[in-house]
Amino acid sequence: KVPQSGQRLISLRAGQAQIVERLTPKEYDSLRGMRGIQVMGAIGNENLFLHLNYKAPPFDNNLVRQAIAHAIPYDRIIETGYFGDARKWEGLIPSSYPGYHRSPTQFAYDPAKARQLLAEAGHEGGKGLEAFPDAMKLTYIAERESALGPIATVLLTALRDVGIPIQLDPIPQTQYGDRELVKKDLPMGLTDHVKPIGVDAGYGVLLSYVSSKNGGILNSMNYENELVDGTFFASLNEGDPAKRAELLAVIQDQLMVDLAVVPIVEFKTNWAISETIKGVVWHPDNALHWYDFSPAQ
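Structure (tokenized):
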């Protein structure tokens, strides 16, 4: 193991390694077009979203959640954070998964709309949001600064522009995980580490969106919706694949209406490899399986 991504990059360029993973988007971009090296990847199940806790005012107001969704400059994040190697996430389930449904409810970058919604929520120009100082902290994993820091800065500027006075709050990974997954008291988090490995929309719903009281696995934002829970359990008992897909579509429509999380982008799971080997295959655990590889001829 080589913990520093920059050192892994140097090892590949020097020919001391044939495969490297978990580089930053900027480091992958620096390798494109380099002789003897390939950057390979797939949009599988990795995504970036805003976690907004339903038990942390003002995020219990759906108008505030919608305002935030319209304040996000998606294209700028794709270019600044991922060097073009991502796409806007138009749902709350990985789009590559069987059962994925693109809801007609979508949120585009529209600062004027964001300001309007904020006013309708009773916070015109951000008035009153200073009463929620903890909620106005955009928290992310400090160890992911090189990847998430530039994106967090874009969000800071964009949200302040519409009147949402956020502050950046990088914290250690152990603390972030404890607050997100155990205490579930994190008001606003920038998250890119939730990766459903069950290749099915129903599993993705169970993992993140079924209420905790009804057996949801994570649900770190304390989301509860009886329609979502009831329809999910109905889908478990539906033997007709077409009818099951219809039930999962109903759930995904509701998740987008409620903005259970604010989806931002889907990004590639990438690897950089020497041209002396071949056989890179994406697997839903996002790990390379060595039996896939062989020498390039």
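The CA atoms of residues 58 and 98 lie 35 Å apart. The chain has ten helices and eleven strands.
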